[in-house]
Amino acid sequence: MTAVTATCETCPAYNAAALKKLGVQVEAADYIIALAGNPNTGKSTVFNALTGLRQHVGNWAGKTVSRAEGAFRFNDKKYKVIDLPGTYSLLSTSVDEEIARDFILFGQPSVTVVVVDATRLERNLNLALQILQITDRVVVALNLMDEAERHGIQIDVRHLSRKLGVPVVPMVARKMQGVPELLQAIEQVATGAYVTRPYRIRQYDERLEQAVQTLVEAIHAEYPDLPNARWVALRLLDGDASIEQAIREGRLGDLTRNNEPGVIALEAVS
Amino acid sequence: MNTQTLDQLQIGQKAVVKRLSVDGINRRRLMDLGILPGTQLQAEMRSPLGDPVAYRVRGALIALRREQAQQIEIDLIEGEE
Q1: Which residue blocks in A11-120 are alpha helix, DSSP H?
Q2: Are A32 and A2 in contact (CB under 8 A)?
Q3: Pairing of strands B53-57, B60-64
């Protein structure tokens, strides 16, 4: 694929040729994209920029949390986009956070796009780093770059990307700036053309590692196909009641039983 | 030296978080709000009934109830004992 230059970006033909917004047609997709981010980061604006203004809005099964889906076609592949609830964290206990967490963990999206507010980067990186703990396939959309500039904030995007180990795309989603670059980054991570090296916090001690190992083996014995068994083990050690309950009731397997994960997986959790 | 907690901070005063004396979900919640040992805080506003109080934390205003603020041990910054 040829590199996108600044002039390509502003040329309407570029977008029109490669990106086809599919709005509500969300059947069979080649890739599933999860859209995560803190509240008020322009997540919905990014969602609309990718899928067009129309979106299918419903509820997450069994929850009173709205769920938006859309789709787009890019370079002959069809992408389904799931807009996750805006959250500050994946580790507390609100329903929103549980939905976002379960989808990223067990829905196994091809790519998780984390939309972050460039004017409040420190605050927003909390969620981004938590997501990097549980999935390799991440693209960071650094939105609201125009506001950051207005506040005199400069961000070394390349350095940030190197530190996080995933693509970081500066954007002004409201003005469609950075959308072609975001599409390229999504494609590259989805196809594996871009090999991510997500930043992981490793400061566990020997005793903890042993406890995790013991639990991971037990979890795998019961649920051989479960991704992220290590994360589940850590949550158990942390005393996460919702995970404990899921295991006790034998629902952990439901999370991954279906091949068209995302959607159905979450219905099983409710 | 007696231990001070965040609820004792007067409006306008600044402090650094020394320790979070709370576990589990509530500890996690405070950390997700950006409140960790070493974080600087300033009391900015008090609600009419005195509770909750809004604190400036890493560029955002965050309102905490007294019982939450009592779980945050602090060191006062400059002067005012």
Answers
A1: 12-18, 43-51, 95-106
A2: no
A3: antiparallel
Chosen for mutation from B32, B40, B56 (greatest number of chain A CBs closer than 10 Å) is B32
Distance of alpha carbon A119 from the chain centroid: 20
Backbone phi, psi, residue A256, to 5°: -120, 0
Q: What is the ipTM of this complex?
A: 0.75
Give, in order, the Cα–Cα distances in Å from A9 to each of A14, A217, B73, B79: 7, 49, 51, 55
* pTM score of the predicted model: 0.79
Among the listed residues A81, A66, A68, the one whose alpha carbon sits nearest the alpha carbon of residue A22: A81
Residue of chain A minimizing CA distance to B35: A123
From the options 3.20.20.70, 2.30.30.90, 3.40.50.1360, 2.60.120.10, give the CATH code of B4-76: 2.30.30.90
A264 Cα to chain B: minimum distance (Å): 28
- Phi and psi at B49, nearest 5°, equal -90, 5
Angle at A43 between CA A42 and CA A46, to 5 degrees: 90
- Please report the domains of chain A, with CATH numbers, ordered by start residue: 6-191 (3.40.50.300), 206-269 (no CATH)
pLDDT digits (tens, 9 = 90+) for A179-209: 999 999 999 999 999 999 999 877 668 898 8
> Which residues in B lie closer than 8 A to residue A120 (C-beta atoms)?
59-60
How far is it between the farthest Cα atoms of chain A? 58
Enumerate the residues of chain B whose CB falls inside 8 A of the CB of residue A234: none
In chain B (81 residues long), the average pLDDT of successive 10-residue segments reads: 85 95 87 92 92 90 93 84 45
CA distance B35 to A8: 44
Amino acid identity of A191?
T
A259 DSSP assignment: S
Q: Which of B24, B32, B60 sits opposite A89 (nearest CB)?
A: B32
Give the pLDDT confidence of A125-145 residue by residue, as tens digits: 999 999 998 899 999 999 999
